[in-house]
Amino acid sequence: MRYEYLMNGSSLRLDPEACVGCGDCLDVCPHGVFRLEAGKARIEDRGACMECGACARNCPAAALTVKAGVGCAAAIILGKLRGTAPSCGDGGCSGNRQADCC
Amino acid sequence: MIDLVRRNAGSEERQAGFAALRELQAPWVERFLVVRGRTIPVVRTRLSPRDRWGAVKVRWDIGRGTYRVLPGLYAAGDPGPDSPVFVSANYKLSFDALRSSLEEIDGWILVLDTRGVNVWCAAGKGTFGTGELASRIAKTRLATLVRHRELILPQLGATGVSAPDIARKTGWRVVWGPVRARDIRAWLEAGRIKTEDMRRVTFTLPERLAVAPVELVHGWPLAAAGLVLAALYGLPADGSWASRALPVAVLLAGLAPVGALAFPALLPWLPGRAFSVKGAVLGTAWAAACSAVFGLPPPAAAAGVLVAAPVTAFLGMNFTGSSTFTCQTGALAEVEKGFWPMAAGLAAGLVLGVVYRALGV
Ligand code: SF4
Ligand code: SF4
What we know:
The complex is a heterodimer. Chain A contains three helices and four strands; from the N terminus they run βαββαβα. Chain A is an alpha+beta fold. Chain B has two domains: 2-201, Rossmann fold (3-Layer(aba) Sandwich), CATH 3.40.50; 206-358, no CATH class. In chain B, strand 6 (150-153), helix 7 (163-170) and strand 7 (173-176) form a beta-alpha-beta unit. In chain B, helix 11 runs antiparallel to helix 14 (255-266), helix 12 (220-233) runs antiparallel to helix 13 and helix 15 (275-294) runs antiparallel to helix 16 (298-318). At the A-B interface, helix 1, helix 2 and helix 3 of A face helix 4, helix 5 and helix 17 of B. The structure holds iron/sulfur cluster (SF4) (2 copies). One iron/sulfur cluster is lined by residues 12, 28-29, 31, 33, 49-55, 66 of chain A.
């Protein structure tokens, strides 16, 4: 099933000039956002991008940027209350992001 | 097992190791492997009833904060210098998922200190990150145990770990394994070729409901508040108090299970892209259905909708943290744009309810 969320992928940028076509972004992206075409990565499904930052962190050519962060309202609210950046709290999050998958 | 350790606990260094090992008298440690003067716990690759019971308890949020394993190096089977190294988090469920996927696979397990948080959350926070991995490689002197320089990480760790930086800093090469530990065997057997399925995060019904028990447990203050409001709504305490209070009690207290169970179950079919919108739709439907079933008078039904919609909108919004596809930009927009409408709706609903009852019509 394909899910799409509000503003998904809005901050994801790919610089095709810099891309060396290694395919690492395809390997780490959990939502199949990229496709390799003629030796370059291409954003194929921006709406599925949850802005997790895995691709940008692992691009060896620094061709990708994304405003990464946890997509969690509770963390954002906690951050606002404390006047900090979104924060998962001290004891780990109350949501638990599918603990048995990894 | 203790004897084995003691016999090898000659030097002072080994004595120190022995102290740490005592902590490792965990039931999931099968035996100890002595290699190059070091004693490394070998984990069981079958989960015991106790492990499974522990997982159930964590699901219901009992003792969750303490469900951790000691960071460091472990073995599965009978690993040697050419065996693969799997990296995990020190949240016991993450660790259990990995070791139970390594039956009859000889390998090393490097457990990072993620403060008891699962791989993906920890990667998002940065504790399952480049710095911790690099220092854990050094601290465990991993390079003295294996000849290769390759680490297998769960793919979702990529949010926190930079493979290019690890290569630059430490000379180790990161290989991104499957998202789910249970796919490791198939992945290894296929010559480490990931299928598209192994790479994708899903959000199936069981996955959506995985956090429902915790949400239910946390939902009791909401249910209690609903019951109190319903009791007040039923006043005065005459013969028909119960008949007035009951429908409102069902409507309001029911919001807790509606938010914890119905929302995640129906998520893909609820309209809207923002979770708060989806939640508001669900809450409206619930309040309307309750009003119809109990034949609530229109002003009471309207008050019910005005209270229910913001509550489920808020619960829905909070579910973003348990989902596997929401981004921060959108969640921030929801929080910022949703706050006032929710607060206003709730206030209007409560005022309407009070006024309606006070007029005593
Ligand atoms: S990881 Fe970077 S360089 Fe490699 S294909 Fe993707 S964008 Fe191009
Ligand atoms: S930010 Fe995450 S979801 Fe978005 S494209 Fe990169 S890896 Fe995929």
